[in-house]
Design a protein that fits this description.
Layout lengths: L14 E4 L6 H9 L4 E6 L2 H13 L4 E5 L5 H8 L4 E7 L4 H5 L28 H7 L2 H12 L4 H11 L8 H10 L14 H12 L1 H15 E11 L2 H16 L4 E2 L9 H6 L7 E6 L12
The structure holds S-adenosylmethionine (SAM).
Length: 299
């Protein structure tokens, strides 16, 4: 919270954007701790937005929920009637609710078998993970597994997927796990994570075009911040952190922002003990300069 809205700074009333509403934990914290603030909350997942209605009722006139991808931040702000903002927060990835819902196809485990959908927004008409597994060439699958999953066995897994797909009309999580397991080298050393983890992650990022959407959204956000306003990004994946690091450095070079964090902040051992998911989290923040140069209209 202190990263997004440092104590004693900023005008009142302030407007914040929670670009990744999820279960609403961050939005709730802003609304509770900053009584002058309102929040425009976005999520690509219609279920997250529907669940948020109860929170909006607790804070009348202060929480505005939008079912939209954060790549369309401009349209969301226009429909909320806001031109400039005092802060924006991204807490990337999936919520525990999405991971826990077997029907979404994001997770896998011995007991689970679900259609491989993986769209953040199942109403979007985009291709599902199953569609992409059926349609992409072996080379494209291999490239995606490497780029989004840092998967060492990308070639063997891509080959195993292509080999199986003639027999499959529609992929399920169990079939994908079986393809990944069949591509593991014999006698491989046991690792801390399940062998299919990186493949599932890569596929989810591919289906939702995560890196491009993040880049597009950051480019809009930095120009919408009012003087002194901040953008904070929490990422859990090296590819996402790389996008944030590069865009933030470019904004600093262009004089659009100053870096609040030169190196990403990592969680303390106590935070990791309380929330194991935070283990791989990296937080970066930037601030819009107090005095904007001519032609840099943020508001
Ligand atoms: C880690 S959860 C956020 C948790 C939230 N901060 C909380 O306190 O409950 C990430 C959320 O961001 C959403 N999301 C991910 N990428 C998105 C995008 N490009 N546009 C909008 N929402 C997105 C997901 O649907 C998910 O609900």
């Amino acid at each position: 919270m202190s990263m997004l809205a440092p104590a004693g700074e900023g005008r009142s009333p302030r407007v914040f954007v929670d670009a990744t509403f999820g279960a609403g934990g961050h939005t709730r914290a802003i609304l509770e701790r900053l009584p002058d603030a309102s929040v425009v909350a976005l999520d690509a997942d219609p279920e997250a937005i529907a669940r948020g209605r109860a929170l909006a009722e607790l804070y009348p006139g202060r929480l505005f929920l939008h079912h939209v991808n954060f790549a369309h931040l401009d349209a969301a702000l226009a429909s909320a009637g806001e031109s400039g903002i005092d802060g924006i927060l991204y807490d990337l990835g999936l919520s525990s609710l999405q991971l826990a819902d077997p029907q979404r196809g994001f997770s896998f485990g011995a007991a689970e078998d679900a259609p491989l959908d993986m769209r953040l927004d199942p109403t979007s008409g985009q291709a599902t993970a199953s569609d992409l597994l059926q349609r992409l060439s072996e080379a494209d699958l291999e490239a995606a597994l490497r780029t989004y999953g840092d998967e060492r066995h990308a070639r063997a897994i891509a080959r195993a997927i292509v080999k199986r797909r003639d027999r499959i009309r529609s992929w399920t999580s169990r079939e994908l796990v079986a393809a990944v397991m069949s591509a593991q080298p014999r006698g491989r050393r046991r690792s801390r994570i399940h062998p299919a983890t990186r493949t599932f992650q890569a596929l989810r990022m591919l289906v939702n075009d995560d890196l491009s959407n993040l880049e597009r959204s950051l480019d809009i956000a930095v120009r919408r911040l009012r003087p002194g306003g901040r953008a904070v990004v929490i990422s859990f994946h090296s590819g996402e952190d790389r996008v944030v690091k590069r865009r933030f450095a470019a904004f600093a070079r262009m004089g659009l922002a100053t870096l609040v964090t030169r190196k990403p902040l990592r969680p303390s051992p106590r935070e990791v003990a309380a929330n194991p998911r935070s283990r791989s989290a990296k937080l970066r923040a930037l601030a819009r300069p107090q005095a904007l140069q001519e032609g840099e209209d943020a508001v």
